[in-house]
Write a structure and sequence with these properties.
With 268 residues, the chain is mainly α. It has 11 helices and 2 strands; from the N terminus they run H-H-H-H-H-H-H-H-H-H-H-E-E. It has one domain: Rhopdopsin 7-helix transmembrane proteins (Up-down Bundle), CATH 1.20.1070. A two-stranded antiparallel sheet has the order 1-2. A hairpin with an 8-residue loop joins strand 1 (240-244) and strand 2 (253-257). The longest helix has 28 residues, at 206-233. The chain crosses the membrane at residues 29-49, 61-79, 91-109, 209-230. Pfam families: Ceramidase.
């Protein structure tokens, strides 16, 4: 990595929004500020998951911290359009996905080669992430498209879990989450592939909507897999999907409530 990769505009990727139209210091203003949910949401999720982190899996807070890093990296990239910013943006997304999968994927979905060992599974996911990180430097222009394919295994695993889940609230959240994810991907594709069309309608801001929708989709996905994990491996903890600020308002902020206070002794 040389100093030129820190320069503004050094990234081969430039989204549809016009550059430096609002501020002389921020290349893509809407795409930059639309990351605000990644900065505001995770600290509150850390609070809501304090019992989960204490009694079940402390690493849940790593996921929320990584989401903050995703927001900061994305804001830096869109503000500067530097290659370093692009790589930070993309690699933090990769690592938050792999961390969630490693820590909370139910064991029954592990390939047989891991023999149900989460330690082996985490190790293999770490190796894959390191290799993918190295490869991302080879052809930066295609990294974003490669990352989109991560939605396929995530959606498949969610589908498999929703088929057997007995909690209707969990099922409804999974359906809403998938719908929002599809809407986010539609925004991403339209901004990337049909920029001229949207620019002609004076609305080149779909990537900003992607940021908002993908956060609204990403954190409930983490909540769902946190629920699946404890429901599968610690059912005596009696996990319950709840919502803040009112539990009867299912469009609020979802979190997993733990009703049995015993620390997790199982191996990672």
């Amino acid at each position: 990595m040389t100093w030129e990769h820190l320069e503004r505009g050094s990234s081969p990727v430039d989204w549809c929004e016009g550059n430096y139209l609002v501020s002389p210091d921020i290349a893509e203003f809407v795409n930059t500020v639309s990351n605000v949910l990644f900065l505001l949401g995770p600290p509150f999720l850390i609070y809501l998951f304090k019992d989960y982190g204490k009694f079940i899996q402390p690493a849940i807070h790593l996921i929320w911290v990584l989401l903050i890093v995703v927001g900061l990296s994305s804001a830096y990239f869109h503000a500067t359009l530097s290659l370093l910013g692009q790589l930070l943006d993309e690699l933090t997304i990769l690592w938050v996905f792999m961390a969630t999968l490693s820590l909370f994927c139910p064991r029954r979905h592990f390939p047989r080669i891991f023999k149900g060992s989460r330690k082996r599974f985490c190790l293999s996911m770490s190796i894959f992430s390191i290799v993918a990180t190295a490869l991302s430097f080879c052809h930066p222009a295609i990294n974003a498209f490669a990352l989109m394919f991560l939605a396929i295994p995530a959606t498949y695993l969610l589908y498999k879990e929703l088929k057997i889940v007995q909690d209707e609230r969990v099922y409804r959240l999974g359906v809403r989450n998938t719908t929002i994810l599809i809407a986010a991907i539609v925004c991403w594709i339209n901004d990337r592939m049909f920029c001229d069309t949207w620019s002609s309608m004076n609305f080149p801001y779909l990537h900003g909507f992607w940021h908002i929708l993908i956060f609204i989709s990403a954190y409930p996905a983490c909540v769902l897999f946190a629920f699946f994990f404890v429901n599968d491996e610690r059912p005596e903890s009696r996990p319950t999907l709840k919502y803040w600020p009112r539990n009867d308002f299912e469009l609020g902020i979802p979190y997993v409530s733990i009703n049995y206070g015993k620390k997790l002794d199982d191996e990672i």
